[in-house]
Amino acid sequence: MIERPLDLLNSSKGSKVLIYCKEGKSYSGKLLAFDIHINVVLEDMKELNVTGKTIKSFGLSFIRGDMIKFVSPGDH
Length: 76
Description:
Layout: H1 5-12, E1 16-21, E2 26-34, E3 40-48, E4 54-63, E5 68-73
Antiparallel strand pairs: 1-2, 1-5, 2-3, 3-4
């Protein structure tokens, strides 16, 4: 049951997520870890264009929480 925002992230660990950043870029990857500041670690991270096509692959990556606008769980 999801009662707090971080509960949603915790239930998404090990699954694909879509992360939209403040500068307008979006990334997808498998959520490995996060902290209270929403700093996230993604496995097999990919930058996506507006249609959802991969622009660039990064592998294991870290995104600072203060750069994130929203996180959406699920395969996109």
